[in-house]
Write a structure and sequence with these properties.
The chain has five helices and twelve strands. It is an alpha/beta fold and about 220 residues long. It has a domain of about 45 residues. Strands 3-2-1-4-8 form a five-stranded mixed sheet. A four-stranded mixed sheet has the order 11-10-9-12. The two termini are about 35 Å apart.
Length: about 220
């Protein structure tokens, strides 16, 4: 686990904000101890000693593996933005660039999300009373060469790419490169195991980093 919390709540956001929100409560041994489904917009209760992780829909996250120059996070981010400049259709000023862990061969996971989507997720998280939660693209909860189906969606972490999509589309994209798709209880257990490992990427960084409200009050 990446924290001393006795358990973790994994909140699975659906791409449609009007859909109910599924939650898996996972203990320190990656066992699912409870499942909840909360109506859209209804806040989650505060649980002491619980770590919250929000799995955001990978459909809205561009995931890249890049070689980056620098050591400081700002240097690494500048290197990523420079590399992505010629690849993105959207202007760089309109997107959030987040850094993840270094993958194989010294390549870093880099996520690109529209600022409009980040702000929408922030508003959604506030309504759910999850302001301090980490945000991870749902497909990056899977280890490499794994895929799971959640309802009408498939999350894929293949040998060379990670993405989420509607089931029919996901299976049509690079079908020969897809790992077997887990469903039902097996899918939930794979996600539970993933959230108990260090997150490959947390979108809550730079201008979207959580605000330490206690520290801010102490400075006043």
């Amino acid at each position: 686990m990446t924290s001393a919390a006795a358990q973790t709540r994994l909140i699975l956001l659906h791409p449609d904000p009007a859909q109910p929100v599924r939650c898996l409560v996972v203990d320190a041994h990656a066992q699912i101890v409870a499942r909840h489904t909360v109506p859209a917009g209804q806040p989650f209760p505060t649980l002491q000693g619980t770590r919250d992780v929000v799995a955001v829909p990978g459909e809205f996250v561009g995931l890249h593996r890049l070689r980056l120059d620098g050591r400081h996070p700002l240097q690494l981010r500048a290197s990523a933005r420079n590399d992505l400049g010629d690849r993105l259709a959207a202007p760089m000023a309109t997107v959030h660039v987040a850094l993840g862990a270094a993958a194989e061969e010294a390549q870093w996971w880099v996520a690109v999300v529209a600022h409009t989507k980040m702000r929408a997720w922030a508003e959604r998280a506030a309504r759910l009373a999850l302001d301090a939660a980490a945000w991870v693209p749902d497909c990056l909860l899977l280890p490499a060469s794994h895929a799971v189906q959640l309802g009408d969606r498939v999350l894929v972490h293949g040998p060379s790419a990670a993405f989420s999509a509607e089931a029919a589309l996901a299976m049509a994209v690079g079908a020969d490169d897809h790992p077997p798709v887990l469903e039902g209880e097996d899918a939930d257990l794979r996600l539970a195991a993933g959230v108990c490992q260090p997150l490959l990427l947390n979108l809550r960084q730079f201008e979207y980093a959580p605000v330490d409200r206690r520290a801010r009050r102490a400075r006043r």
